[in-house]
Amino acid sequence: MNRAVVPVFIPHLGCPHQCVFCDQRAIAAPEAPEPEEVPAIVRRALPWAEGGQLAFYGGSFTAIPEERQEAYLQAAQPFLQSGLLGSLRVSTRPDAVDGPALERLGRYGVRTVELGAQSMDDEVLRRSGRGHQAEDTRRAAQMVKDGGFELVLQVMAGLPGDSRALCRQTAEQIAGLAPDAVRIYPVCVLRGSPLAALPDYRPLSIDQAAEWCADMLEVFQRARVPVIRLGLNPTEQLAQSVLAGPYHPALGQIVQARLARRQAQALLKTCPPGAHVLLQCPKGQLSTLRGQKNDNMAWFRREFPQMRIETAEDPAADRLQALVLDN
C-alpha cells in the first residue's frame, strides 16, 4: 500500500472559532482551492502518489456546509474509482463529528479522520479559544473508531494555561483512546494570531519543548501509539511567520534524541562509576542516541565524567542496552 499523502489545504474552512494559536494561512496555504481545482492537484502528484491518500487539511472539514463538503469529496471520486487514489483523509474538530457527518465521509471513501484534540484539560481549551471540551474529544474519538475509520489525534504542548504535568496527562488520556496515530505540535507564536497579542503569554523554549514533548512521546511509545509528526512542517513561509516559540526544522529529531538521552541515562546509572560502557541501540537509531551535533554525547561526558562511553548499533537489538566492557 502506498502511504503517500496528497495534501489539499483548506485553511480555516468550517472553523467556528479563532483559536489563539492558529493561522493556517501562514502554516499551510493562503486560500483554499475550489473543489474543481482538486483534480489538478491530484494529477500533479501522480505517479509518485498513486494508490495513496488525498487529505483535506487546515480546516474543520465536517463543519463546512454539506454542499461544499460533498463537492470536495466528489472531486476525488474519479481517482478513487480508477485506483489512482486509495482513500481519503480529513481533519476536523471533535465537536463537529456526528453520525450523519461520518456516514457522509464513509460513503465517499474517507478512511482516516484526524481530530484536533490539542489538550484534554478544559481550562487550557477554554483559554486557547477552542470552543469544545475534552469530553467532545472522547465522544468523537469513539464515534470515529466505531464507524470503522482510522483515528488520528492531534495534541499541542505549551498552550495558554498549560504545564508539563498537564501535557503528560493529556498524552495519557489520548493514549487511552487508542488512536491509530498522533501528532504532537509545540505551540509557536505566529504573526497575526491572537496569541501574538497576549502580553502575558510566554512560549516554550526549544529546550522546554524538547522536555515536554519527550514526556508525551514516552507515553505514546509505551502505549504503542505511532507518532507521525513532531513539530510543524518547516517551510520558508512558516519560518517568516513565527515570532517566537520552539520552531526548529529538526525539532522532531531533537525530541527523539532527548528521550533517548533519558533512556541512556537510566542505564548508565546502573553501571559502575568508572566503567567502560558500550551503549547499543537498534539499527538506524545511532544518530538519535548520539543527539543532534553529538549533543547527547557531550551531555553524557558532563554527567558521567568518570565513565568511558561508546555507542554502536546492534542490528539484533530491539531496544537500547548498556554493556559494561570493563571496570
Note down, in words, how this protein is organized.
The protein is α/β, with parallel strands linked by helices and 327 residues long. The protein contains twelve helices and twelve strands. Strands 1-2-3-4-5-6-8 form a seven-stranded parallel beta sheet. Helix 3 links the parallel strand 2 and strand 3. The radius of gyration is 22 Å and the shape is globular. The relative contact order is 0.09. The mean pLDDT is 93.
Summarize the topology.
Layout (H helix, E strand, L loop, with lengths): L4 E5 L14 H4 L10 H8 L6 E6 L8 H17 L2 E8 L6 H9 L2 E9 L3 H6 L6 H13 L3 E8 L6 H13 L4 E6 L2 E2 L15 H17 L4 E4 L5 H6 E3 L6 H18 L7 E7 L3 H5 L4 H9 L4 E7 L6 E6 L1
Helix pairs in contact: 7-8, 8-10
| Annotation, overall tally of beta strands | 12
Terminal Cα span: 50 Å
User: Could you give the order of strands across the largest sheet?
Assistant: 1-2-3-4-5-6-8
Shape: globular
Rg estimate, integer Å: 22 Å
Order of helices and strands: EHHEHEHEHHEHEEHEHEHEHHEE
Helix content: 25-40%
Q: Sheet bearing the most strands, described?
A: 7 strands, parallel
Strand content: 15-25%
Number of helices: 12
On the 0 to 100 scale, the average pLDDT is 93
Briefly note the structural class of the backbone: alpha/beta
- pLDDT under 50 segments (min length 5)? none
